[in-house]
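User: Some background: our group keeps a shared notebook of sequences we're curious about, and every so often someone picks one and asks for a predicted structure to add to the entry. Today it's my turn. The entry only has the sequence so far, pasted here. Could you supply the structure so I can complete it?
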Amino acid sequence: MLISKHNEALEGIKELFRTAGIGYELSFEMLNACDYNVPQDRKEFSLLEYEKI
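Assistant: Of course. Here's the predicted structure to add to the notebook entry:
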């Protein structure tokens, strides 16, 4: 889960993409390294940008 200051930044980034009119969408997910055979319990934030068709 994102802390509030990070959530505010993410919302700002998403709003920039929505209002820019460049035809891209954003998707994000919190991942845990241990789910990918990494011997650490570390949460990572992944942001994916893709072209809206």
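Suggested note for the entry: The first helix runs from residue 4 to 20. The mean pLDDT is 81.
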